Amino acid sequence: MPLTLQLRLSALYDSFVNLTDDLQKIGRQLGTVQGSYDTAIKKLTNKGNLVNRVEKLKKLGAKASKQLDQKLLTRAQNSSDSYEIDDAE
User: Fold this and answer.
1) Which of 18, 28, 30, 75 is deepest in the core (most CB within 10 A)?
2) What is the DSSP letter of 11?
3) Angle at 60 between CA 55 and CA 66, to 5 degrees
4) How far apart are CA 71 and CA 76, in angstroms?
5) Is the Cβ–Cβ distance between 89 and 58 less than 8 Å?
6) What is each CA distance from 10 to 1, 6, 14, in whole angstroms?
7) Percentage of the chain surpassing pLDDT 90?
8) What is the pLDDT of residue 49?
């Protein structure tokens, strides 16, 4: 095999390995970001259920110009750790 061709093939192979290394790094980073997202969503919808608590404030008369996402509300309402604010508070 001519030397020039060997050099090109070696460079191509090395470039491909670098690309796959970068893709694996991106995959790990996406996994980390997904884990952080899941943790944050759990804080909103699980124990203490902040979503239901602030939605209850709205129902008690708090004026709001925006609405929470329906999927988030549904997830929070389906949570078994729901926390309700007493109407007397």
Assistant:
1) 75
2) H
3) 45
4) 9
5) no
6) 12, 6, 6
7) 48
8) 85
